[in-house]
């Protein structure tokens, strides 16, 4: 909890609520005992007010716990999304079912533990002043509840469903991604059996966990009930023989269950929190991204861009770019060509700040790109990826996301008058909508990654005309000879080397 936002404060507030609950329990027990021995209207009103005050403390604790849980889960989701990406399936499961399971831990288990740490001790001290024999019985039987809870907790520590759920989610996502390949090689049925087997394993683990939870609840209830009986029966016999006053006997009978109730509640809520704790550990284990720069970026319309010994390596592919030295002058129109997998898209990704060089640096106007504020730098860029994403809505609404100059951009992309839903567009038209969105953006650097991949002859001519009209610095990854001829410079990328 110390690593979470507001964690220390939340624990302090829970401690205060625990102390307030202990005071409310003692006051309520005294007033109820007085009312039951000598029932009067005033005693009933006062006892009712005490019960209402205790209920109000519980309500306030739940409100604080719910708000804290919402804040913590939001912070953890932001941390996971901002962190270094890992396995996509496990990450999605963590962001949804995983962190949702943290709420029972924050709103149920921790408040119950805070109450269980204070109330039994307060009740035991009060019983010692009222009747030492009853206090000794409670002191001897009270540790049985946490002992049994600890034993059950050790048994269920290895039965958390989170790991199985994360594996199932990750494998299912991999199957969906590879479905075309599986259909091609007729392996869909085999993978269906694998997913079905993993789902059955998760179901069996869930049922085993629930069985242990129900059995442990039965054990805790039985221990607490027998412990209360060990106090209640002797007190009743002493009351009949006149060995104890009626007010004292009733007070003991009211207070004794209160000593065991918080421990039983904490033990019952333990099982609902185990998955949340596993998800919390997974969220905290997500590597934090490198520190982002805060410097204000130069305008690429007037600043040059220099690659100085840039090398980009991936753990599974090795070096994708190797010692790239390149200078881009303001206003240049550059075409980037080369075979597939040579590193062309990675070159654009480095300029976008999506990939950090393993060695070397990219300088914009002499300032290292890593020192620039990423959001401010990307505000100067317009980018059309190989597979652009269009949002649900009209063509105009999608183009308007790029910038205010919608009509000019639509005309440049030869989409004037086309304002229907994007779901009715052809692949080539969708590519031109993405181009119009980039043209509508007031950018100083335009990056186009294979923009002609889905265009017909008409679309290619539209793109070429729009590219000629650009006065910004631009890089286009293309293979068509017409683009190579129109470029002010052509860069060839082979095996990560730019020539």
From TrEMBL:
CDD domains: ABC_6TM_AarD_CydD, ABCC_MRP_Like. Its main location: membrane. One of its GO terms (molecular function) is ATP hydrolysis activity. One of its GO terms (cellular component) is plasma membrane. The keyword Membrane applies. InterPro entries: AAA+_ATPase, ABC1_TM_dom, ABC1_TM_sf, ABC_transporter-like_ATP-bd, ABC_transptr_CydD, P-loop_NTPase, Type_1_exporter. The keyword Glycosyltransferase does not apply. It is found in: Cell membrane. It holds the Pfam family ABC_membrane. Keywords: ATP-binding, Membrane, Nucleotide-binding, Transmembrane, Transmembrane helix. GO terms for biological process: cysteine transport. Residues 305-499 form the ABC transporter domain. Residues 9-275 form the ABC transmembrane type-1 domain. The chain crosses the membrane at residues 39-57, 106-129, 135-153, 212-233. It is a multi-pass membrane protein. NCBIfam families: CydD. This is Thiol reductant ABC exporter subunit CydD. It comes from Actinokineospora fastidiosa.
